Amino acid sequence: LQDGTRDVTQQILDRLDSKASFLTSTEFPDIPQNEIKAALDRLASRAMVQYTTQDSERLSLTPEGSTIVNEGSHEYKVWDAVHKAGKLEMKDLLSAVGDSAKVGQGNAMKNKWIKKDGSALVPAVDSVEDATRIQLQQVQDTQALKDPKLQADYKKRKLIVATKVITYTVEKGPKYAKEIPVEVTDLTADMLASGEWKTANFKPYNFKSLGATQNAGALHPLNKVRKEFRDIFFNLGFIEMPTSRYVETGFWNFDSLYVPQQHPARDLQDTFYISDPAVADKPRADPEAEAQMDIMEAGINKLHGTTKPKEPRDYEAYWENIRKVHENGAFGSIGYRYPWSEKECLRLVLRTHTTANTSWVLHRLAQDPRPAKYFSIDRVFRNETVDATHLAEFHQVEGVIAEPNLTLGDGMGFLEYFYAQLGIGNLRFKPAYNPYTEPSMEIFGYHIGLKKWIEIGNSGVFRPEMLEPLGLPKDLRVFGFGLSVERPTMIKYKVDNIRDLVGHKVSLDFIESNAAVRLDKN
Ligand code: PHE
Description:
Layout: H1 3-18, E1 21-23, H2 24-27, H3 33-44, E2 49-61, H4 63-71, H5 74-85, E3 88-89, H6 93-97, H7 101-110, E4 114-117, E5 120-123, H8 131-142, H9 148-156, E6 160-172, H10 189-194, H11 221-235, E7 239-240, E8 247-249, H12 250-253, H13 287-304, H14 315-327, H15 342-346, E9 348-350, H16 355-365, E10 372-381, E11 393-404, H17 408-420, E12 424-434, E13 437-447, E14 452-462, H18 464-467, E15 476-484, H19 486-492, H20 508-513
This protein binds phenylalanine.
């Protein structure tokens, strides 16, 4: 119990010693209402007092209302100026009474205090009663105003404001005493033996007091947002791709995506290369990875059924297809026509996007081509200048839809539906360039919470140069898109510096106290 509350408790008991009942607003106008309530509850739980609660309104003057009490109403000032002058040209009124001129002249005429005489004003009466000033004075003195119509009128004119006040009527309870008697908090063996427990004054339980805060685990905001994204994808029938490989070969990260070996994205300043080991073997079947794929495939089978018995994946043919499509052109494309280097292709990188994983998954789909919807949410790495909104690693959300004769319009329609669930409507698409998609579109959305347009993703229709080497049929169109988890999370939790969200400077209190996420409510 705080000293303040003990003090208020005693003051209440003192007051009841001299008065049968009282109103807290008149007896203790300066003590905050929550302190009074705490003290009253403490006493009421011991039946020492009884109280009832009244909600009421207290009126007070706005600065304009106070000016009227001190100087008179606008109409009074106008009448006073005209009366003193005997006759006042209307054009001189502004310099005579300032801001009061406009409202004041109208009201003074309506009250028949002044009248027009050509282009001038003359007084119509010799003395006036400034009712507005008198009524506002009354508000100042009593914090109230009887006439409800006047009250509404003054509120509308912003001369008075009402604040809600809670007061309590307090009276003695059956166990009233001048002081809280000493209370016993523990029942001891001695008390039982001596029989003292029968008459002891036990402290009552406070069933309303809050328990001590517990230390418990909490999900990181990025994880909460990730869960939201996963739920949206699952609700739409998407299947999660296994994405455990942070280290990839250039083959999957770039070449399989028709990114030429001279592309600037492959430069050291954009991509992290592994030094030991620096290169990998050529792609081949990996039983552990295939087992993860089997789990994923089981999901698709459930939704779409299998159409063909599974054949072992042919990595050799795929490798040769990639070489051909880059070096000489193939599948109806003239290719890039440069000497394609196997060594460059086998260099190990920290994956720069989860699209590396997507081509690996699509290679598996090519064994048994059929409509499929995949997604993944996992970490990617870019050798970027680190600043308030960028780190060298972030989490990418990736969605992929494979469907015969899928159109660009279908993809755009899907994105509109998808982003609507994040509270982002009115999408705009801007033509962009990715080596692996054509057409490619940056996605912009109007964010309701932020009230502005923001870039929220990249998308496109995968090129035949990427899909046909995989062995996918020509009519199976594949649409893909990607965005970061960090961006919507920073928006959602109003974090402006990424270091407050990720890394060693993150405050645990921020993690523990954050609300559950609902992306559509901002
Ligand atoms: N890989 C792209 C990126 O990193 C996202 C994307 C995925 C674009 C699939 C098109 C298709 O921004």
